[in-house]
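Re: Re: ligand-bound prediction request (bumping)

Still looking for help on this. To restate: I need the protein modeled with adenosine monophosphate bound, output as structure tokens. Inputs repeated here so nobody has to scroll up.
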Amino acid sequence: MALHWWIYPLLHTLHFILTSDAARSYPANEVTLLDSMSAPGDLGWVAYPPEGWEEISVMDERNTPMRTYQVCNVMEAYQNNWLRTSWIPRDGAHRIYIEIKFTLRDCNSLPGVPGTCKETFNMYYYESNNNNLWYIKETQYIKIDTIAADESFTQVDVGDRVMKLNTEVRDIGSLTKKGFYLAFQDVGACIALVSVRVYYKKCPLTIRNLAEFPDKVTEGDSSLVEVRGSCVNNSEEYDVPKMHCSADGGWLVPIGRCVCKPGYEEKKDTCQPCRPGFYKASSMDAYCMKCPPHSYSYQESSSQCTCEKNYYRAETDPKAMPCTRPPTAPENPISTTNETSIILEWSPPRDSGGRNDITYNVHCKKCAGDSRRCSVCGSGLHFIPRQFGLTYTKVLVTNLLPHMNYTFNLEALNGVSELSSRPKQYVSINVTTSQAGDAQLNVILKERRSKDSITLAWQGPDHANGVIVEYEVIYYEKNQKDQNYTVLRTKSNSMTVDGLKPGTTYVFRVKAHTSGGHGTYGGEIELETSQEDMLAIGDPNQPTIMAVSIAGGIVLLIFLVTCFVISGRHCGYIKAKQDPDEEKMQFHHGQVRLPGSRTYVHPHTYEDPNQAVRDFAKEIDASCIRIERVIGAGEFGEVCSGRLKLPGKREIYVAIKSLKAGYSEKQRRDFLSEASIMGQFDNPNIIRLEGVVTKCKPVMIITEYMENGSLDSFLRKRDGQFTVIQLVGMLRGIASGMKYLSDMNYIHRDLAARNILVNGNFVCKVSDFGLSRVLEDDPEAAYTTRGGKIPIRWTAPEAIAYRKFTSASDVWSYGIVMWEVMSYGERPYWEMSNQDVIKAIDEGYRLPAPMDCPAVLHQLMLDCWQKARGDRPKFGQIVNILDKLIRNPSCLKTLAIDAAWSGNSLQDPCTPDSSAITTVDEWLDGIKMGQYKENFASAGYTTLDTVVYINSSDLCRIGVTIVGHQKRILWSIQNLHTMANQMHGTHIQV
Ligand code: AMP
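Reply:
Sorry for the wait, this slipped through. Here it is.
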């Protein structure tokens, strides 16, 4: 019995649902192989036996037949009705999905049906390469599943009944043949098979991260397939673009990406060309940007903009930077002539060309007196710091020949000067050197003093214009020049001046007379006659024993009396100053040690130097020391690191200096003298002596271990890694150690970064106290004309000229250490020779501020380098100044370079506070140019990053016409970047 009566109304109702269903597009990741609802014409399905499945068609609104199959032989038992689809090509898919929509009558709802009524049917498939099989044995089919109606089906009202439309999806995987057939087996149910859709899944073509990923058919199992994308037009791979296609046809997270090529920017998954007037320089830039000032692009898709005429871009300039031009000539040149040297100074060019990398070259031409014979100056002249590539607007030129006309052409250059074919612009200074014989004689080679006479010897001038005829010596009592002076002449280069007062300071000056004329007097040399009839000998070749023993005798007497009378203590040794000269000074100034104040005791004042070691250094048993590795080389042997474990104490790391084998008794004494000096000190900024090993060999000095070694190499290794405050902290430590030493009347004489040690906490400690160290140990020490060996670059001029070593000369050296620290271990005076350094210092030249050095610190250096030693600060004052800076770091924010140009007094380095500058108005107020706020604002310069490329013509345009104001603004602009970096650790974005 075929129960057609119930299916017709159902189909009409379903018609609407299914046609709208069919109109609905399937998900993009499903590819349909067969859809019974939309297949045109005959489906070609086969049903057998003939009284089983039956095709029933209805027309949709476009008059297309919709084919459905039904069977309802519920009244008879043993049903076996097959409905087989046509051959379905596999189309390369590995896993196939079958979606069936059907209704199934509930047997209970059919009146009078027997118990054989079923509510399920079976689905099968058969794989085949053939598409024209007319018969397949039932046993050849592979069962997919038994299908039953489930409970989640759509409900459809059919007249007074509710029909349920079921949708079931099954899949078959790992297909291998070209195609397959499906079959539906009914075994006695009442079914209407409304639609059958067969499909497979794929990951559909997509664009992600500018890479196109093609369609990808999913795998039969659940594995992921890696798919490589290809970059869209005008883009390039940044990182290989890849995505994984999942088994259910979904793309997973993309990896890698493509980026738009230079000249193109990303818009909606494509790369679009930059418009004219815009550019994109790198594929890494996100967007096209407007051409920077003084450049243009006429074409689409430009990767850079072309500079306007007479404007250029240096190779290293970023493409975003405006095009710039060469600077104008330097301005306001002035010269200060001093005998055979000259200081040239000038102002920066009016127009920097829009750049801040200005340097200066000095070209020199010399003409003999009649101006007809001119030539390039040649290598005879010395330019300090250098002739070409100067970064400061000042140069010292030495070794000029007398009686010459020199022309100095000053040229300003910047990073694009080489690119311009326009003639360079110079400003010239003409200088005529004075007449013959102008050579200074300020280096006294040796002197000998008694109570009423002084013997001087000197060196002839380097560049005398003609044969030296005689020398003229002028001398007078110090501070008495106006009242009385004497002039003496000699043909030799030495002279003994007699008839002098005892214990009186005289000033001597010497000049040469040549066949060409008279020179000028050299620098002043102050010498003092002795109090008593004794010799003070400067020449190391002279016998010294007498002088030392007489001077020693006096000192010994004074201090013996001092010991007994003032302190009342027992003295097993004589307390004296470290240097016979110093002793004398101290004696003259009446400085007597006060009770309770500690004074350094010179080991040589002991008759038995071993006693000094015993008094000041603890003897350590060698078995307590474990040497681990060599860390350096000292004058007397290796320096090792190791551990010291004293009974009842914690093990500590130590440095161990040992005296190499085969030493003489003097070497042993000198070696141990360092311990007997160091052992007297107890200060956190002085290297601490742990003890000595003298009872067995090798003899050793044990000190605390300083993990970071010497300060100079430590800073060079960590160039730029510290904050200014950290550097000031280190300087403070050194100054505090030196204050302690000077309070103890100890003069170091070789204070330099190489003689400061740094521990693991960056604490700096003064070291190197050996007696012979300056003479023998320091590779920087050089012989002076007076025979002593002195580290010239670190030493005060009076100590070089006549060995006047005092705490004030240590302060000079401290200034050099400050410079070394702020420049991270740069060599003072760079590659200049020692002789040039002496000369330059005498001419008044001082080291410029290191890069990024706060103005206040450079000022302190300059104070330490005052020519008159009495004008230099004391170590106690230096510590106080540094303490104030540490407490008030805003004082460190004005850099030396800014202070020099902003016109701020260096005495008042705390204003203005450039760190606070965040707006154009604040900046203008800070440089006292607040009157131009409106001009800047109305010209559109509203943020700091817009002002950094302003040049002088821009300033004219916006109404800043006064040249001085322009200069002030332009220099401040140059420093805006530096300030921003220094103060905030950030960059102004341009
Ligand atoms: P000196 O003979 O004192 O000049 O020492 C030579 C080198 O040994 C120094 O430059 C340091 O590198 C190293 N040195 C000396 N003393 C110490 C110490 N206490 N801690 C760490 N290294 C040291």
